[in-house]
Predict the structure of Uroporphyrinogen decarboxylase.
Amino acid sequence: MRQAGRSLPEYRRVRADVPMLEACARPDMITEITMQPVRRYGVDAAIFFSDIVVPLKAIGIDLDIKPGVGPVVAEPIRDADGIKRLREIEPDDIPFIREAVGQLTGELGNTPLIGFAGAPFTLASYLIEGGPSKNHEHTKALMYGEPELWDEIMRRLASITVGFLRTQIEAGASAVQLFDSWVGALSAEDYRASVMPYSSWIFNQLSEYGIPRIHFGVGTGELLGMLGEAGADVVGADWRVPVDQAAERLGPGKAVQGNLDPATVFAPWEVVAERTRDILARGRSAEGHIFNLGHGVLPNTDPDQLQRLTEFVHEQSAT
Ligand code: CP3
C-alpha cells in the first residue's frame, strides 16, 4: 500500500518538523517510516520510503514536494539546454539510499523490501510541466513535435532510473516497482512508439538480478498488455479493470497486482469485505495475484480499517 504512512499518527509525528525531501535523505527516518506500516499492519512486504523525484533532486534539479500538491520543479525542462541538466546518477549522489536499504534488510528479517523508481514518462511529465498536470500538454507537445529532444530526455531519465534502482537492489531490495503513474494519459499507439522502448530498456537492464519486477500505472486498462510486454513480471492495475480481466489482458507468464479502490475503505466494513472477497476470487484465475489497493492510500484513511483489511486478506488467502 503506497503512502500508507501518510494516514498514520506515528508518521505525522516523525514528519512534523521535517520537510518531505529532507526526510527522504535521512537513513534513520527512511528506516523508521518504512517500518511503521509493517509494524502496525503486518503486511507481507515493505515499500521503501522515498519518492520518485529523489534521484532528480540528487543530481541537482531544483525541485520540492509541496504538501497536498506533489512535486514542483523550479525551472521546467523544455529544450536541449534544459535536458543537459539531466546528468547520470552516481552511487555517491545517494549514499543515504544504500545506507537505509542496508538497515532495513536487517530490521525486516524475512519480510521483503520493495524498492522503486519513477518511469521516464511520469518523471518527464513533472519535469516538462513543472508540476502535477491533468492534460500533460507541454509533455505531449514535446513528444509529438520534437522527437529527437523527446528521445534524449527519455534516454537520460531511463538511465537515471536504472542507476537509482541498481543502488537499491545492490543494497538488498528484494523486488522493484516501476511507477509510470500518469501513462494512462496516452493512447496505446503513443505508448508503444514513444514510451515503451525506454521502460523496456529499464526492465532489460535489471533482468540480470533475477528479482521480481513490478510495473504500475493509473488508468492503464488499454495499456495493460504492453506494461507486461515491456518486461515486467507483475503488472499493477487500478480498480477500473477487474483483476481477472486484467490477468487476461496480460496473458501467460505474468502476475497481477491490485486493485481495491482506495476510496472503498471509507465505506462501511461490509462493503470493503465484499469487494475484497470479489477481488481475491477473481485473482484466483490469474497465474499470480498480489492483493493491493489500486492506488496509494488516501491521507484521511482510518488506520483501523486498513488493519481489518490486512487481517481479512490474510484470513481469506489462507483458505
Ligand atoms: O508508502 C510510502 O511511503 C511509499 C513511498 C512512496 C512515496 N511516493 C512517498 C510519498 C512512493 C512509492 C511514492 C511514489 C510516487 N511519488 C509516485 C508514484 C506512485 C503513485 O502514487 O502513483 C508519484 C506520482 C509521486 C509523486 C508524489 N509525491 C505525489 C503525487 C505526492 C503526493 C502529494 C500530496 O500531498 O498529495 C508525493 C508526496 C509523497 N510521497 C508523500 C509520501 C508519503 C506524502 C508526503 C506527505 O505529505 O507527508
About this structure: Residues 2-6, 15, 20, 47, 49-52, 65, 67-68, 70-71, 116, 179, 181, 295-296 surround coproporphyrinogen III (CB under 6 Å).
